[in-house]
Sequence to fold (131 residues):
Amino acid sequence: MNNTLALIKPDAMQKGFKDEIREDIMNNGFIIAEEKTLHLSVVQAKGFYSIHKDKPFFEELVEFMTSSETHIMKLEKANAVSEWRNLMGATNPAEAEAGTIRAKYGTDISMNATHGSDSNENAEIEINFFF
Ligand code: GDP
Fold:
């Protein structure tokens, strides 16, 4: 078993997709080992996305991530990092494969419904950030 960090971002929470996304996660063989809902502070959002601090979209991303509540989950499955990224689909919902979570529930490249760690190393860092 491996772990990854999954977020249901404020756009999907606001649109009421939390339960559908949790169902998709469990129907795809993940165990939700830990979970909680938080309204991220600016400090938390900037800290979590610090790798993107020099990107042109950083301020927009922090504003979005602090706009309302985020649901935070530690997921367990074999190859959890790649399995969750495959289930989420591409960063831009317009390019995400049909049936993926971002294709179904995402709004645009910024408000794309979910987050997933991109490596086992970052999964550990991100899980420790929230749990
Ligand atoms: P991810 O690993 O698929 O989430 O993608 P990245 O690590 O590249 O980007 C992190 C997050 O920043 C994405 O999930 C989006 O919410 C946001 N983001 C990425 N690219 C852009 C962009 O070009 N414009 C805006 N506004 N937001 C972006």
